[in-house]
């Protein structure tokens, strides 16, 4: 799943840990689009993984305030 700032998380985390609230920007998530095979040759997907653990206790306050507001209204 991806937010508008291109933060990416797995579906399980988005649904069960983040509750559709991006910990970085507060926005919501959408299914990540698939890059057409023809473009993968010229524009390959990045192989660099950036791991930024979330402090869930800090994030919980923000999440609780935002999770019941639709992403478009946050």
Structure notes:
With 74 residues, this protein is an all-alpha fold. It has one domain (11-68). The chain has three helices and no strands. The protein is elongated. It starts with 10 loop residues before the first helix and ends in an 8-residue tail after the last helix. The relative contact order is 0.21.
Counting structural domains, the number is 1
Distance between the termini: 18 Å
Q: Output the helix-strand order.
A: HHH
Mean pLDDT: 90
Structural class: mainly alpha
Overall form: elongated
Give the uncertain stretches in residue-range form. none
Give me some keywords for this one:
74 residues; mainly alpha; 3 helices; DUF1272; DUF1272 domain-containing protein
